[in-house]
Amino acid sequence: MVDFNRFTLANGLKVLVHEDATTPMAVLNILYDVGARDENPEQTGFAHLFEHLMFGGSVNIPNYDEPLQRVGGENNAFTSNDITNYYITLPSENIETAFWLESDRMLSLAFSDKSLETQRNVVSEEFKQRYLNQPYGDVWLKLRPLAYKKHSYRWATIGKELSHIENAKIEDVKAFFKKHYTPQNAILVVGGNVKTEDVKKLAEKWFEPIPAGDKYNRNLVQEDPQTEARTETIKANVPLNAIYIAFKMPGRLDGDYYAFDLLSDILSRGQSSRLYNSLLKEQQLFSDINAYISSSLDPGLFIVEGKLIEGVSMEVAEKAILAELDKLKTELVSPTELTKVKNKVESVLVFSEMSLLDKAMNLAYYELLGNADLLNQETEEFLKVTAEDIKRISNNTFDHKSSSTLYYLTDENA
Amino acid sequence: MLNRQQAPDFKQVSTINFIHPTENKLDNDIPVYTVYSGEQDLVRIEFIFNNVNYDVEKPLQAIAVSTMLNNGTKKLSSKEIAEQIDFYGAFFQTEYVQDQSSVTLYTLNKHLASVLPIVKDVLSESQFPQKELDIYIQNQKQKLQVSLKKNDILSRKEFAKALFGNTAYGVDIKAEHYDAIKRDDLVDYFKAAYAPNNCTIMVSGKFDEESLSLLNNQFGKDWEKSNAVKNHFNFSATPQQFIYKEKPDALQSAIRLGKIAINRKHEDFAGLQILNCVLGGYFGSRLMTNIREEKGYTYGIGSGISALQDAGYFFIATEVGADVCTSALSEIYKEIELLKNELVSEEELGLVRNYMLGSMLGSLENVFSHADKFKNIHFSGLGYDYYEKYIHTVKTITSEEIKALANKYLSTDDFTEVVIGKK
Asked: Is the pTM of this model over 0.90?
């Protein structure tokens, strides 16, 4: 159970407070409701590049990191296709420094050309390090545009190509800030050794004077239903053949989300899972096999991926995966197997409460979903899922016609 | 009127409280250290074994045993073990590191009594079936092929081999090492290492008298002792080495450089950690500021000191654009020379002090972290005065002392420099 108090400032900024007196630390987490899905198709990778620029100094504070380190704090951030999330952890007695820093960069950035130039280079190196200079590193750069034709999920957060990042201009940076980095578009969570009344005073002092800005109304082009199977074959300097199959599934707010999460657990969570036992241990077709969901806010993907044992044909490997998925469409999952994945989820949720930062991030994310209380109702939602639900969603999802398959082959198989 | 240019007042961290464990012994003398917290209804139990009987001809013995531990006992198959552990929502993890192999159980308290017997079965009766071993060898060789395509992994391997040779700290694992694994070697190693007289149990979380008695009923008896010999290695400084492996297609080069240094037991260790922090130990470090934030050569660069039981080593690691590799290297050496020749300013040192104290406070997030802090000192034969001394050193070290440490420990004329990619 993650308790919290909640209030909204006059400028529309939502604030949640989680009091935890067991720690001498505090966390200030701020989620901006903007991700790669909000980008212009000609300027992809921008939300993430922007995240880097948020550390390049703000209107009144030339350096963001230094004053925070000076009070014993640390910070980081991440960008996904849906959100951008920033967090600070620091000794709770110095919490006001976090308010000072975060509020100033919500007020306005310094917009320095030098910072833009450096971060373009840093992000280009990140692009190379994580996506281009790694075996299989570019899978998502290939799989997204195969599975999505219209929706902005068709590009990855790093962007479609290096040139989009290299061409970013300071005017684009300013416009992006004005559009997305407003109080009404953010959720602030403060957690740890703090009191709600103190947080309220600090929030009113530092954040409330920030102008509300214009409300950003999201209106994304949605994907048409997929009616034909899509495939793509790529060859690269990798040692093993691999397969990636993506099926369409509903978004995070769909009532079946919890059933999908359990379905991926049945297939692939740990050494008792179906794919591991059948395909890796018994049939020995794969040396790695996984299934997982993208958990995105708009309709997402259910992915099965594996690396083939040398000498196994792609056709045999693919058929074996599909046979496992077919079983879920025709046979009900046993009560024991369903209880097993539910027990595991229950346990994971209890253990996740060991981390103050995780609690703060989760509160912000669930508030974005509509209500932070959902975080505390998750266990119940998982427990409600039935074997019939699993069978029903398997039938709706594992349909060849709506699959997108990437065959990733070694050069020798070219 | 709110003055946003004025930073709020702040305080340096004054006290850091460490939760000390209580010590018990099981009937067969296995020491049990417990860091208690009643906040959540869960517990983590770690069974920690020294690595033993190192045989240079069989460098994978300990590693393979650790990974395959849950692959079948006399009573349970690999699948049955996984199903039972998962059914109770528990987590069973095995880990091999240079000095120790450990088995960690995470469970909700309500399932402790159900899962402990499974863990006991695994720790005392593992069989390493040939069929499972064949699968393990096949899959590990495939994973190794993927790893060997990653420049940063290659740079780690080359660096460790250059410093530590064919010991457990340095051995360069190749596909043929996997082919050479024999089931009998695994069974022998298992009997030697996974024995009560080579075991320390570290508990953290909610754990009462009754839980201790459950633990004692399972692990305090019916478990054969062994007479294994704990690994011990001797190292001396290595000469300067430049290792360069060209990868014609590389977009980035992986760089790793450093040398054998000191470990936690040495009186200079805390000071060297502060020096390391200034150079490359945090986001505002000199290496990050120069090579990422000013030059944009890399996504990240850092330095560290790794403390092993029989050695310590200092390293700097990064991946940089292939076209700027040579420039990045010369900037790295330049930053080291600066620390040897010029005093760190009071302003920078003050920031580093506060950062390190905040970081230490923040690293004690929950009961698991308190247990981890105890393990750091316990297995180095140190007491909590180690942390008192560390905190005192962070608060009081002078710029002159840091410069002296840089000259003592960071002379680059015996550095090992590894570059994988292009120069």
From this structure: yes
CATH label of the domain that carries residue B140: 3.30.830.10
Q: If DSSP codes are grouped into helix, strand and coil, which group holds residue B273?
A: helix
Q: Flag if B252 and A125 touch (Cβ within 8 Å).
A: yes
ipTM: 0.94
Joined together, the tokens standing for residue B162 give 């250059």
Alpha helices (runs of H) in A169-273, residue ranges in sequence order: 170-180, 196-206, 257-268
Same domain, B131 and B173: yes
Q: What is the tens place of the pLDDT at every residue in A168-177?
A: 999 998 999 9
The torsion angle over the Cα atoms of residues B110, B112, B115 and B116, rounded to 10 degrees, is -160
Q: Are residues A174 and A46 in the same domain?
A: yes
User: In this structure, is residue B356 part of a structural domain?
Assistant: yes
Q: Is A48 on the interface with B (CB under 8 A)?
A: no
| Residue of chain A with shortest Cα separation from B12 | A71
A48: Cα within 13 Å, side-chain hemisphere:
25
The span from the CA of B319 to the CA of B420, in Å, is 9
Residue B39 confidence class, pLDDT cut points 50, 70, 90: confident
Confidence of residue A413 (pLDDT cuts 50, 70, 90): low
Q: Do both A75 and A147 map to the same domain?
A: yes
Interchain pair A310, B283: CB under 8 A: no
Residue A100: which of B7, B150, B284 has the nearest Cβ? B7
Q: Do B135 and A117 touch (CB under 8 A)?
A: no
> Chain A: nearest CA to B209, how far in angstroms?
22
Question: Given an 8 Å threshold on Cβ–Cβ distance, is B7 in contact with A288?
Answer: no
Q: Measure B310 CA to nearest chain A CA, in Å.
A: 32
Say whether both A325 and A384 belong to one domain. yes
Contact: A70, B10; criterion CB under 8 Å: yes
Which residue in chain B is spatially nearest to A136 when comparing CA positions?
B146
Helix segments in A54-161, DSSP class H? 65-70, 95-107, 113-127, 139-147
